[in-house]
Amino acid sequence: MGRAGAPDDAVTARVRQAELGDASDVARLLGELGYPCSRDEAAERIAVVRHDPRQHLLLAEIDGDASGLISLYTLYSVVHGYEVARITGLVVMPEEQGKGVGRRLLREVESICRRYGVRRIEVTSNASRTEAHAFYRQCGYIDRSLRFVKALGD
């Protein structure tokens, strides 16, 4: 292992807030995650996040190329009595996986959460994404509860 638990082939990824001009990269990354959208739809989503102080959309870049993204929102939890955060998406391009990009994105989100006084970060992952589950566990996240979903299509 390389630095601080990163793989030996870890690369240095630059992480920054997504901008409207990143819409094509965001669309490509969301498609890789299994949520395809057009460049225009991605631009709309970036605009929504940029105007909401409780949301963050970060891009990881390697040599100027988008290699991953993570999205996060924070909220006050009445149940817990403090601020919590939820990671709503995390994806790293297949050719960049295993190089520390996902860990770098998680560290950045954890830093943001500490600045905002967030005391708990939650992430959900489709039951079929066993590699993602192993990744989250390796990064210190633990299994806590089931998630139930009901689509309101009326």
Automatic annotation (TrEMBL):
Domain of life of the organism encoding this protein: Bacteria
Q: Known InterPro entries for this protein? A: Acyl_CoA_acyltransferase (IPR016181), Bact_Acetyltransf (IPR050832), GNAT_dom (IPR000182)
Gene3D superfamilies cross-referenced by the UniProt entry: 3.40.630.30
Please tell me whether the keyword Flavoprotein is annotated for this protein.
no
Protein name in the entry: GNAT family N-acetyltransferase
* Keywords for the protein's UniProt record, in alphabetical order: Acyltransferase, Transferase
One Pfam family in the UniProt entry: Acetyltransf_1
Q: What is the lineage of its organism?
A: Bacteria, Pseudomonadati, Pseudomonadota, Gammaproteobacteria, Lysobacterales
The signal peptide here is none
PROSITE patterns according to UniProt = GNAT
Coiled-coil positions are: none
Instruction: Domain (N-acetyltransferase): give its ranges.
Output: 13-154
